[in-house]
Amino acid sequence: MIRKSRQWRGVGLVTAVTMRAEIGPFDRFQSGTLIARFCGVTPRNASSGARQADAALNRASNPKLRRVLIELAHRVTRAQDGRWPVLAHKLLRQGKKNVVAAAVANRWVPWLHHQMQPEHLAA
Question: Long-range contacts for 93-100 (Cβ within 8 Å, ≥24 apart)?
Fold first, then answer.
């Protein structure tokens, strides 16, 4: 897992080792959404009655892992090409400056889950 993840832009040794140590085997999560919740990069629900809203990131997770993933999101959005800078620019155009890194991390982690499936690891 560490060797595979180091091939992706923005993932260094510390990030890869931290993810491996804190997340463990990826097959224990049924979906990318569940692993994103585990990592603490999903917004928490702040709904009340008929009002539907999201609030800050869910705090019920490992703060070291969340910090590493937010830093990773900053690195992948500074790339010259790829889907993550496009997503970041789209969010910035919508005026969501304060949530760009968290939103990118929230989408990057399910992508990671998909990449760590056995059919992708063999490639």
Answer: 100/73
Give the residue carrying structure tokens 């999560």.
29
In the block, tokens 């702040």 appear at 46
Q: Which two tokens stand for residue 13?
A: 């040794």
Q: Which domain holds residue 32?
A: 2-121
Q: Cα separation of 61 and 101, whole Å? A: 17
Total domains present in the chain:
1
* 3 state SS of 9: coil
Beta carbons of 14 and 68 less than 8 angstroms apart: yes
- Compute the 3-state secondary structure of the chain and give helix, strand, coil in percent, each to the nearest 5: 60, 5, 30
pLDDT tens, position by position, 27-58: 889 998 888 888 888 876 656 667 655 655 66
Q: Are 92 and 98 in contact (CB under 8 A)?
A: no
The predicted model scores a pTM of 0.81
